Amino acid sequence: MHTVAVLALDKVIPFDLSTPIEVFTRTRLPDGRAAYRVRICAATPTVDAGAFILQAPWGLDALAEADTVILPGCADPTAPIPDEVLDALRQAGAGGTRIASICTGAFILAATGLLDGHGATTHWLAADTLARLHPTIEVDPGVLYVDNGQFLTSAGAAAGLDLCLHLIRRDHGSAVAADAARLSVMPLEREGGQAQFITHDFPPTPRGSVLEPVLRWMQDNADIDLTLADIADHAAMSTRTLNRRFREQTGTTPLEWLHRTRIRQAQHLLEATDHPVDRIARQVGFGSPTAFRDRFKRVVGTSPHAYRAAFRAPATKT
């Protein structure tokens, strides 16, 4: 039987802690036998989880004995991690134990050094901080999880469930994983990544900047097929000067800024209206529905139809 050790630290996120316990405990093999043995481990017998106090039956020595270690996220991902915890995780990793993190649990795994030189993800709100604190890790905030073989990371709390199902499929095949997904009322694979949940805001333009009126004009005319020359003419600048000032003050080009503005408008229309996708493409200024679909998927990480299915507000009853 495969042993899963779930590490509990103070201020652990309850959902991150309960998800692997529920999923792995309920997973069954085709003959009905339990697929996993789950152990809750901690550095101390009692863990302050914020909303409750947790009694951990196993200590840190159980990490090296496990086949898989799960690291749930903590409320403060930048809080210091006890050296004994990091040492136990390094020892487990050196022995070949598979280690996977949920949400901000990636910060714990990163602190061990085991993720150095690997790709990783975490909740998109914490991705920049993870990349800044651990520059040797290639952080991708647009995916639900990253599988490096021995070391795996996942995005927010719900993506922890995606990761658990992925691990079950690796261990026991798609049929067992599909049964586990059905028990969780969850698709075995969700379309898109966490990019669809990210708020795509742009750096604020300084007040009084020459770009301020240009940006307002571009927003008001986003439904028109504007060219770089059109924008430069309105701004009374050369295209070269316009590009330079845009990069200095917004971090992107005028056309990329315009495309992202259109995508934000399209997201609102997909959520709030029944308009066909082709009509929305025209409304927000894309001359070609195909170009709109391609751009939408690159920015948001999923198709317009899938985005609408996930985020469309239910009709209110009258």
Automatic annotation (TrEMBL):
<feature type="domain" description="HTH araC/xylS-type">
    <location>
        <begin position="212"/>
        <end position="310"/>
    </location>
</feature>
<dbReference type="InterPro" id="IPR029062">
    <property type="entry name" value="Class_I_gatase-like"/>
</dbReference>
<dbReference type="InterPro" id="IPR009057">
    <property type="entry name" value="Homeodomain-like_sf"/>
</dbReference>
<dbReference type="InterPro" id="IPR002818">
    <property type="entry name" value="DJ-1/PfpI"/>
</dbReference>
<protein>
    <submittedName>
        <fullName>Helix-turn-helix domain-containing protein</fullName>
    </submittedName>
</protein>
<dbReference type="InterPro" id="IPR018060">
    <property type="entry name" value="HTH_AraC"/>
</dbReference>
<keyword id="KW-0238">DNA-binding</keyword>
<dbReference type="InterPro" id="IPR052158">
    <property type="entry name" value="INH-QAR"/>
</dbReference>
<keyword id="KW-0805">Transcription regulation</keyword>
<dbReference type="InterPro" id="IPR018062">
    <property type="entry name" value="HTH_AraC-typ_CS"/>
</dbReference>
<dbReference type="Pfam" id="PF12833">
    <property type="entry name" value="HTH_18"/>
</dbReference>
<dbReference type="Pfam" id="PF01965">
    <property type="entry name" value="DJ-1_PfpI"/>
</dbReference>
<keyword id="KW-0804">Transcription</keyword>
